[in-house]
Amino acid sequence: MTDVSENVSETRTADLRVRPATTDDRPAVERLWLMFRHDMSEYQGGLPAADGTFRSERLESAFTGDGWAPYLLTRGDHLAGFAFVRGLDGPVRVLNSFFVVRGARRGGVGLRAVQVVLRRHPGRWEVAFQRANAGGAAFWHRVAEEVAPGEWSRAERAVPGRPELPGDLWLSFTVSG
Hints:
Elements: H1 4-13, E1 16-20, H2 26-44, H3 57-64, E2 69-75, E3 78-86, E4 92-100, H4 109-120, E5 123-130, H5 134-147, E6 153-157, E7 168-175
Parallel strand pairs: 4-5
Antiparallel strand pairs: 1-2, 2-3, 3-4, 5-7, 6-7
């Protein structure tokens, strides 16, 4: 008997595309960034500025910084999310920001997209998330186990410049080429 949930997941990811984001994509990624930062404000306590925007240094770095790469996730003609990678010019890559639009979650889109991004840059990886983000924690532990079964580690690190916040949890693993 076929598992219906597997068929639903396959359907949701069948038209998933993960591609480098270009400068032409930047306005769309900026709008996705607002959704991402809104979601993260629940765990990081950040509020938008008077103009309704959130801090965007990482967004700027993703498009202009050395060693960074922005990716856009789409399903058919629709935006599904983004991924920002940093550290491409060093020994450890960091999945700096990863976001899947709520309407595309829980169907395998995030797992498949992150696997594509990780495999494009084989080597040592790290990803951080907030301890209070139970859904994110479950997702990232699943990712680590999928890409490096039994060969990953977790550590808590202080948030730089934010001593009032609890430390982030960091997962470390290696992705084969």
